[in-house]
Amino acid sequence: MLLVAVNALVGGTLGQERTVLPLLADQVFHLDLYTSALTYIVAFGLAKAGTNYFAGTLSDRYGRKPVLIAGWLIAIPVPLLLIFGPSWEWIVAANVVLGISQGLTWSTTVMMKMDLVGPQRRGLAMGFNEAAGYLGVAGAALATGYIAATSGLRPGPFLLGAVFIALGLGLSVVFVRETHHHAKVEAANHVARHANAGASLSNRQVFTLTSFRDKSLSSVSQAGLVNNLNDGLAWGLFPILFAAAGLSIERIGILAAVYPAVWGAGQLITGGLSDRIGRKWLIVGGMLVQAVALVMVGVGHSFGFWLAAAVLLGAGTSMVYPTLLAAIGDVAHPEWRARSVGIYRLWRDGGFAIGALLSGLLADAFGIPTAVLVVAALTAASGAVVAVRMRGTDYEAGVAAPPR
């Protein structure tokens, strides 16, 4: 539960941007092209994705706690850059730093919970972890929306982020304890069903297994990428779409908060549910629900309709997010599970950058509604890939998968 609280602060550190930065790009820096305005999401996504890859290796080599603390230390300059940045390049730089920090802190809290719980409760643990993180995102998005409406876009909203960073660093240094030894004990007692799926795999072998060769791991990786692709779209373009329709900053803040709030709270249910009914069809269903919600955003014109779409988008994402992480933990051997999680998160958070770039280009060429509808089609197609390619429950509950 301490790690749940820490991850809520990690989410809050990210949530300080969700409502404010798109408006900052539009109203303060007067960026004309959507593609230019979304450069901060591209920077964040690439930085976080790359750091995720190294977080697993670093946590195996040096332990989980030092990596977690390093992530918080790196986050310290982010609010200062966002508050005092005189040009858009400073905002982009802040998001590079934030991406590195998030890659270390969020990845490590995931690994530490996997260390602490057995395979029968892995989905539940991931549900708690991701629920805390995205409720933190939602709470910060809502709070910063109200702060921005009453005191301006800077500096007030980002002072809240500074408080989150201070609390997260303090809790991690003083109270969080190392968990790597739990993974070592699990690895020593782990019996793989196939001899070539054991512990002694190189980083390159783990990468190719997670990304391409193993049907379940690769299906999960592409679904994670597409999930965050549509989240990058929601983060960068939804507030601009809502503002263009004449919604107030307060209402934009509500819509920016409802989506991650439903996403976060829903994971308290869906994480444990995936332990009981399996991962595959929860992932497929969640991707299809997200696709329907995105279509609603693309064709909508009113606050009430968009509010319903935000609820549905959050519900679909909650079905997918903890389940994907739990599926990685099911298949990967405990000895290389942290590396596999890092590689999955490399692909998943690369979706932020791809989504921001793709949706920005489409929005510049055809308008935001068309960009939303194209991403809806990609999301539905991703669910179909999981339905066709991912194995069912044969390899769940901690059984390592054979390379294929």
TrEMBL record:
The chain crosses the membrane at residues 31-55, 67-84, 90-110, 131-149, 155-176, 281-299, 305-325, 346-362, 368-388. The keyword Zinc does not apply. The keyword Methyltransferase does not apply. Keywords: Cell membrane, Membrane, Transmembrane, Transmembrane helix, Transport. Pfam families: MFS_1. PROSITE patterns: MFS, SUGAR_TRANSPORT_1. GO terms for cellular component: plasma membrane. It is a multi-pass membrane protein. Its main location: membrane. It is found in: Cell membrane. InterPro entries: MFS, MFS_dom, MFS_trans_sf, MFS_Transporters, Sugar_transporter_CS. GO terms for molecular function: transmembrane transporter activity. Residues 1-394 form the Major facilitator superfamily (MFS) profile domain. PANTHER family: INTEGRAL MEMBRANE TRANSPORT PROTEIN, RESISTANCE PROTEIN MDTM, PUTATIVE-RELATED-RELATED. This is MFS transporter. It comes from Cryobacterium psychrophilum.
